[in-house]
Amino acid sequence: MKHKHLVITLGAIITSALLLLNSCRKINEATELGGGLIPPVDNIHTFDTTMDVEAYNQLFTAQDDSSRSNYGSPQVLGYISNDPLFGTTDARMFFELKPTNYPFTFANLPDSLRLDSVVLILESAGIWGDTMVPQTVRVYEMDLANEFRVDTSYLIRQNNFTYSHQLGSKTFLPAALNDSVSARGDSNTVNQLRIRLDDSFGNRFLHYDTTTANNPFTTDSAFRTKFRGFAIQAEAGGNALMRFNLTGANTKLAFYYQYDKRTAAEPNNVDSAVAYFNFKDYNTYFSSGSASANAVTRNIAGTPYQTAVSGTTPDNEVFIQNTPGSYARIKIPGLATLGNRVVHRAELIMEQIHQPVYDSIFPPKYLFLDAYDPAVSTQYNRFIPYDFTFDVQGNPALGALGVAPLDQKNPAGENIKVWKFNISRYIQNVVNQREQALDLRLYAPYYIFGYYKPTQAAVSSLQRVTVNATAGEGRVRLYGGNTTAPSTSPQRMRLRIVYSKL
After folding, report:
1. How high is the pLDDT of residue 32?
2. Residue 15 and residue 5: Cα distance in Å, rounded?
3. Could you list the residue range(s) of the whole structural domain that residue 456 is in?
4. Shared domain check, 394 and 270
5. Which candidate, 458, 314, 441, 146, places its Cα nearest to that of 450?
6. Are residues 321 and 380 in the same domain?
7. Calpha distance 327→383 (Å, rounded)
8. Distance CA 220, CA 206 (A)
9. Bridge pairing between strands 270-278 and 252-260
10. Class of residue 374 by CB neighbours under 10 A (exposed 0-12, middle 13-18, buried 19+)
11. Distance between CA atoms of residues 334 and 33, nearest Å
């Protein structure tokens, strides 16, 4: 009999626990401030509040965008010609390929060598955009007058290099970059863009004689007096940006040639060979390393994007574009007057505006949220206090903040991306009046510098964090605050707070 009562008691406990758990989930995101009282749980009343925000579109300028290219990250090349919202994008690559060691020689004396072909090979690392629209890329030799230095990181939004001597070109489908091709002397020919260059360019290098004074193959400084590097650009008409790894094993300049092996016994003996010039990274080769730059130019004339960033009133649509691009300054007017309470969850929620066809061609990338703090340098912003953290390995906990989008459906049943930035600890410190209510900044940076302050008493330190893998790629149009009629705009940008009163 005692066992029977025990079973009944345990069953009642389990049933009560399930009912209690179910009741705790009944939080209504759409509830407005002051409503949504949930039945009491352990004498604690839990509320669900939505606060309105104001969003202002703004462009980064040369004065506040110092993003620079880094040879260790994929470089972007291509032309976006047909983006009805954001306009055109022109991405160009500049880099040097060099002999690994000096002095360098080909397999035989220069006057006994015969060129078969010279090919520029780039290691493909992915594509963003429409892969089925043909791209035409042209390879140029940079003018010797260019100041192109291995110890300099160049601004992404600037292109001050000159070039006019075309060495070769190729028209292709970006989708075909992952096809395998057959190449002499190359065992790995997948994920390559191969562009044959003019034979005169190859013969020029093939016939340099290392025995003469000031020959370009004797030292790196001598080599740079004869060749300053490549400039590659895409023609208008394409609709994709292609990523390439400069430091990849498949990025190289290949000289395919024949050389003389004749002897008295074999008077007609010739052999084939291939020699490679590679990208030499600065960390390994220092002053004799390869210089590089990646320039991205936007043209937003006549687009909804241009109209949005030109206004001064709160925007109902927010346009976010990767470096060099734009940001939204976000204000939460009611936050400073929010009374003291226990914040269980605070999320800044933003939803993508569905754009048929182009949502699949130009999918958005990671977004980032930080805070504008007038107390710090105007060149940098401040990471969200308390909610932006680093893990035990020292890596930024971007996922915990909410930089990656969620796949959801809008009221019409269409697939969209939704971001939910978790800023619970920051909001808790604001309502406790231990932190001031700051304006926020939403953008899609390649990388950022910001001031990091993990706790109330800690001293802020300047940190560099990479958010997106490259510059140029990624753009999205979001719903803004829609302050004119927030109650009729369920997809508006909003701050949702789940809290309990003290």
Report:
1. 38
2. 15
3. 27-53+316-501
4. no
5. 441
6. yes
7. 15
8. 17
9. antiparallel
10. exposed
11. 10
